[in-house]
């Protein structure tokens, strides 16, 4: 097995494949993608809704077709499957678990593209027993689309994000009608018109309703919910936890890289570079969870930056200004700005904790870099386009983002 590369990419989802494609187009050929699953492609492999491809191929595509296309475009860059990266160390050294045991691989640059997952039952602290029949949308899609199995007959869906409606649709494709959708908030998290889909399928959506218990000995038999101060039992055979996305941060948390203490998300600058200049991070790992196309576009951009960096490495002691934000904001991506490079404008991807309409202001000291009114909803990508980083002053120590 080859143990030395110019670039190693961890994860073969849309962002990792895109980075490989951009690197190859820039003449970097000594690349490998390491993937822990048996198949390349990441999440879209098991997404059968035509919600991919519009940005990249200007037409709607199912996730599996999107993956086929992008894998074809990446050409002969090898994707080694069954390779789980278990450790990342200074200066581009990583440890990989595979059939051969534990192997150490080194590269001039490593791109981390480990993606995103939904929050399963345990971190949501739902009481009750531990029967079979508790899934996430991802697991449901794998059962139905990859394994052609129907894991439930009358499930309850927890959550109302876009992916929750994907779960509804996936069930429908398997001939299964959900018993109900449960939302703790006052309105659905996804765009309001999506509630029509639930109505059309005859599935009630209960807002301001909390799941408090899962019942059943061997198999789920019911859920207990709390609504208007009253407890109500809904009989069902499964519970599908949807959304509440979180990045795959396990590798980062065990590493030497700087990361946000509250989440584990790596600190990256506007080029996608981590605190160790040998490492870059891309895709939904940084902003759980954007669309597949958006991750692909970002992977292309960072792949280009890495190719440039290999030809002409950036100064090691690059000044990185942290992006500090107010309590309404959940995160920004990137989380810092490399200030001593030729800055022009940049795009800042932000997320809010609660619904708010206001003016998003990005400042460096008293200098306004961006100011625009946005209607911000939680769980939604809010892209601040054209933040004028030319205006960052030489003695700036941080960038501030607030919603007023
Ligand atoms: C259930 C679900 C449904 C979704 N539906 C849609 C949809 O309909 N439309 C849409 O546009 N977007 C959808 N998304 C968003 C989706 O995440 C993005 O479309 C896209 O897949 C993100 O790309 P990525 O490359 O960042 O990560 P991913 O696609 O998540 O790929 C990450 C890859 O890294 C691998 N990996 C992780 N850790 C390691 C490791 N330690 N070693 C080696 N490999 C590793 C994983 O196995 C995976 O293959 C959905 C997401 C989820 C979770």
UniProtKB/TrEMBL annotation:
<keyword id="KW-0560">Oxidoreductase</keyword>
<protein>
    <recommendedName>
        <fullName>FAD/NAD(P)-binding domain-containing protein</fullName>
    </recommendedName>
</protein>
<dbReference type="InterPro" id="IPR023753">
    <property type="entry name" value="FAD/NAD-binding_dom"/>
</dbReference>
<dbReference type="InterPro" id="IPR036188">
    <property type="entry name" value="FAD/NAD-bd_sf"/>
</dbReference>
<feature type="domain" description="FAD/NAD(P)-binding">
    <location>
        <begin position="5"/>
        <end position="286"/>
    </location>
</feature>
<dbReference type="InterPro" id="IPR051691">
    <property type="entry name" value="Metab_Enz_Cyan_OpOx_G3PDH"/>
</dbReference>
<dbReference type="Pfam" id="PF07992">
    <property type="entry name" value="Pyr_redox_2"/>
</dbReference>
